[in-house]
Specification:
The structure is a homodimer of 398-residue chains.
Chain A lengths: L4 H12 L17 H16 L3 E4 L5 E4 L4 E7 L12 H17 L4 E6 L10 H7 L4 H5 L9 H5 L15 E9 L12 E7 L1 E10 L3 E2 L11 H16 L8 E3 L3 E4 L5 E2 L2 E10 L2 H22 L2 E4 L3 E3 L2 E2 L2 H14 L4 E6 L4 H5 L5 E6 L15 H18 L1
Parallel strand pairs in A: 3-4, 3-5, 5-17, 6-16
Antiparallel strand pairs in A: 1-2, 2-4, 6-15, 6-17, 7-12, 7-13, 7-14, 8-11, 9-12, 10-12
Helix pairs in contact in A: 1-3, 7-8, 9-11
């Protein structure tokens, strides 16, 4: 089989025209929007032209089926509210090109998929979540977007296209190519990342309840300043995690809400988000323990109350060893010494697929590490290199 | 002259009935509201009964004049949106009782004042600010409250009562009794504070502009996390100020705004308030220098940009030495060994009066340091002790 890089890039640019918006190569193509449904209709026509059997399932996942049983390659074609042209779209068009090339070559069949609502207008990776069986269609139907529209109402716009859910057994494995969405490859000489794991995520909300007071009349030593608690917690946390974490472990305080949040008032309460990600469940647990203990210690030292809400989580997902090896072999052939094994810090449809079939992922660099933004981009040389690596791996599997 | 503690407390409770609201002894009596104008009418009637000449000036400051030239005693009778029964009201009723007792005793005349809008529905200490000449009536008239009502419109409700502004020369000095609004007296054995200075205030807004990034895909060492900049700045500031400040110096980060303030996004920008107060202008300047240098250092170390907006300020105001001495002598007589000299960390009408006449202030304890809240309170024994100390000082001056 011989992939056609020009045709691949032309299709990728064509897909961008559905919902092209903002600056540069920006795209706004929310799940179930007019642009999204039109993009899927165009994708379906390209699949048909390639001799693939078009299949929509009830949630709007679009398949181009290469045969009765095959490898599945793809990603999603919906975008963030302010999205780039590659995130998701890249993996779908790569899948289309490889399935098409396989048909042309009379090689073993390859199928392609564009999952629906990966970007979470309603849930998180909603289309693959429902197809994997983790989330029922009934539960999903009750999810609402920020404007109060339910998924039930949204998917009704595609109801005329929908057939049944496909049996997972039709597919021998799932491969997803994606931009890294981080700066690691871009800041190195490596052009390809073979994903080892999709990291697990832990999320919780913590509050310190001190005492709200007049910022002029309350001496420093009599204050129970909630912001000072947060600052002390953060500094101590960074120090205490240092000996436990790896270079790919991350933790973030991204949301902070002070009360009453006024310049002349000693803050009486702070609520903040604490998120941490790692590929190792045990390390995630140990980090949680440190966070929990430290919040209590800071509260006790400063005579305030710490409230720790329950920890929410998504488990780490290791990639299939066989598929990883196929990608690594293909990467070494196409880009000798210029690829690495790395975890994915972001969630992907592959996380859900791992519950029902072997999965693996491939990353190409994100310029400046930018994603979920209009100015997300990747050199076209890296896009076609990624296609080549992916096609090479598929060939050995199919 | 013999002050009547029972009559004083009865009047204080009666004043509370105008706008009584919320829980406990809470009061809502915003400047120029129906409750405020009714309270002033009642105060005027009590002044008249005491043989004082009632005088409203154009901004709504209400005077009870004891003679052609006299000591002036008072404070303000408007409240915060959620106020207590003492803040302001205490000083006004103390002034009323002392002026009344002086009249009854045929002693040297004493006058009383209730300033308008000390609590800043429109400006800050607006009534005394205008009378002192610092703010013109024209400028004040253009000030608007949170609902867009101008002071011009608000004071029109009292226009039928208004006479001219009084010449400052009618008064030999101004004495203001107030609750401390902080915990220092309440947490000690002292019952009286003789105010040495009203502290100066410096206020500025600082921003750190880092880089907004995905909280899963951006490794820790490649982040420019604006919240981490703030936390590092705060910790270093506390350490660096330690050798410069006195026990009464205060500094506060009371307002924090993160962008985009989402748990899965590395914060790209933080804007926060930095306020510091001290009685000494030179120390205020040195603190400002440390804050400025440190913000730049943190920004440079972390490769982000610091934006420091201009420093706004209110200058420190020392109390008159003679009036302070009179209060101290009286305090030692009424509460031997149970009083202290202390700065006021909060602004008061006395700050404005200091520009046009000698001023001094007296504090009584605030239970739990609470003020600007419905549950603000002080033991009645402390209220009457304060009245006694104030009356004793007035007697030696008049």
């Amino acid at each position: 089989m011989m992939v056609n890089a020009e045709r691949f890039l032309a299709d990728l640019h064509k897909l961008r025209s559905f919902g092209a918006a903002g600056s540069g190569k920006g795209v706004v193509r929310r799940a179930y929007s007019e642009a999204d449904i039109a993009a899927r209709a165009w994708l379906a026509s390209r699949m048909k032209e390639a001799g693939l059997e078009v299949h929509y399932d009830p949630i709007g996942n679009l398949f181009g089926l290469g045969g009765d049983r095959s490898v599945l390659v793809g990603s999603h074609s919906d975008t963030q509210p302010e999205g780039g042209w590659l995130d998701g779209a890249l993996g779908v068009i790569a899948g289309l090109e490889i399935a098409r090339a396989a048909k042309e070559a009379g090689a073993a069949p390859v199928s392609v998929v564009s999952f629906q609502d990966e970007e979470g207008r309603f849930g998180v990776t909603t289309g693959s979540d429902v197809w994997s069986g983790h989330l029922s269609l009934q539960q999903a139907d009750d999810l609402a977007d920020d404007d109060g529209v339910t998924l039930r109402e949204a998917r009704a716009r595609m109801a005329d296209l929908a057939a049944d859910f496909l049996p997972h057994e039709r597919f021998s494995g799932f491969l997803e190519m994606h931009i890294e969405q981080g700066p690691s490859l871009d800041q190195s000489d490596d052009r390809i990342g073979v994903v080892s794991d999709i990291v697990g995520i832990r999320d919780m909300r913590i509050s310190f309840a001190g005492r709200q007071n007049h910022a002029g009349t309350t001496p420093m030593h009599l204050r129970q300043d909630a912001f000072q608690c947060l600052s002390a917690f953060n500094a101590a946390l960074n120090a205490r995690l240092a000996s436990l974490v790896t270079p790919t472990t991350v933790w973030t305080i991204g949301h902070v809400s002070l009360h009453p949040n006024a310049s002349s008032v000693v803050p009486g309460r702070v609520t903040f988000s604490m998120q941490w990600r790692d590929r190792d469940v045990e390390r995630l647990r140990q980090m949680g323990e440190i966070i929990h203990d430290l919040a209590q210690e800071v509260a006790a030292e400063r005579g305030v109350e710490a409230v720790l809400e329950p920890v929410m989580g998504i488990e780490p997902v290791p990639m299939d060893a066989g598929l990883q090896a196929a990608l690594a072999t293909s990467a070494e052939a196409a880009a000798p010494g210029q690829w690495r094994t790395m975890p994915s810090g972001a969630l992907h449809d592959a996380s859900n697929m791992a519950a029902v079939m072997p999965v693996a992922m491939l990353f190409v660099p994100s310029i400046g590490g930018i994603s979920h933004a209009f100015d997300e981009d990747t050199d076209e040389a890296d896009l076609t290199l990624g296609l080549k690596v992916l096609a090479g791996a598929v060939q050995t599997l199919a």
